[in-house]
């Protein structure tokens, strides 16, 4: 476990007392090492994304890395945007995702299907507001050279056990070549879903070009401060 309480407090922009309280309550994924708490970066970022807590992608970059952050716009272009995805159950929908042309060549689609379903069984990836972010729990198992994000609009809403109880209509399926990029892309998606204009577009099922243009514009804007006041779909649903 690589993160301590003070690290998590900085990443989530909350006090150390809050981190201790969340960890003791079991609402924040934590592991006890003796009398201390330790935290896993992947678990922490997934928790932040699914609970509507915006975390800057830069905070999950390697400290010694000077590489530019991966582009969500480019990842969406690689993965593609799809409409009327079939499936009346969560497992059927995820199986349909693995058959899409945006899955990179060389990926074992049967293995990917098992990984996506297994991830949902372990902990749902629905973030509220009818949106889910399915992805393999270990990004290194699915070998890809660059990040791919497949945006899918479902033919019918499907129960993904969302925290707000709403069925899911929109999926962002994420495939990444490394844990670092997985964290950054997941954080970028979480930030994007705090944008009211993009959320309205997703609810209206616009054209592919319109979605890509909004994402491109978002990435051109300065990132908001971590822990900002913007409301995610999940938080708006709870209000």
Automatic annotation (TrEMBL):
The PTS EIIA type-2 domain extends over: 74-218
Write out the GO MF terms. Answer: DNA binding; protein kinase activator activity
What CDD domains does its record include?
PTS_IIA_fru
Report the InterPro entries cross-referenced here.
DNA-bd_dom_put_sf, HTH_17, PTrfase/Anion_transptr, PTS_EIIA_type-2_dom, PTS_SugarTrans_NitroReg, SinI_DNA-bd
Q: What are the start and end residues of every segment in region (Disordered)? A: 218-239
PROSITE patterns (alphabetical): PTS_EIIA_TYPE_2
Tell me the domain of life.
Bacteria
PANTHER family on file: NITROGEN REGULATORY PROTEIN (PTHR47738:SF1), PTS SYSTEM FRUCTOSE-LIKE EIIA COMPONENT-RELATED (PTHR47738)
Q: What is this protein called?
A: Helix-turn-helix domain-containing protein
Q: What is the lineage of its organism?
A: Bacteria, Candidatus Eiseniibacteriota
